[in-house]
Design a protein that fits this description.
Number of helices: 6
Order of helices and strands: HHHHHH
Shape: elongated
Distance between the termini: 28 Å
């Protein structure tokens, strides 16, 4: 598999990992790094950009589809929605630094949209959180940590 195809697969995995779809972006990043066919900085950048793009989709879902949250087919239970919203109200935009975490991270990015967090505030925090995770994964995979 060539550089471009590997990086495209990594981007797809990172994008889906940031949405409510399943993905395994950390494993994909480790695989790309293990094959050594792409520069580590490039693989980290691709994963970060794609993952942040997926988080922006979540933000958009929260921003524009929140009016349907009481519909029976809304994908998040009212209880989980309320818990995540309360966490966001308590910790504010700083909670977006947890957007890299499993289970909590994706709903936080949706709630940021619900709470109408401006993209100029949302993006730097999510880039730092998600990019930081991929840097750590890369450092561990390459044996620096």
């Amino acid at each position: 598999m060539g550089d471009i195809a590997m990086l495209a697969a990594l981007a797809f995995s990172a994008f889906t990992s940031a949405t409510l779809l399943p993905g395994t972006s950390e494993a994909a990043l480790v695989g790309v790094l293990a094959l050594g066919e792409a520069a580590a900085w490039l693989a980290v950048a691709v994963a970060t950009i794609a993952n942040v793009a997926g988080s922006v989709v979540n933000w958009g879902i929260g921003r524009f589809l929140v009016r349907f949250r009481h519909h029976p087919r809304f994908p998040v239970s009212p209880e989980r929605f309320a818990r995540t919203e309360a966490l966001y109200r308590r910790w504010g935009v700083a909670s977006l630094l947890l957007s890299w975490t499993p289970i909590v991270g994706d709903p936080l990015t949706v709630i940021a949209g619900v709470m109408r967090t401006p993209l100029v505030v949302f993006l730097p925090l999510v880039i730092v959180a998600k990019g930081g995770r991929y840097v750590v994964v890369a450092l561990v995979a390459l044996g620096f940590v």
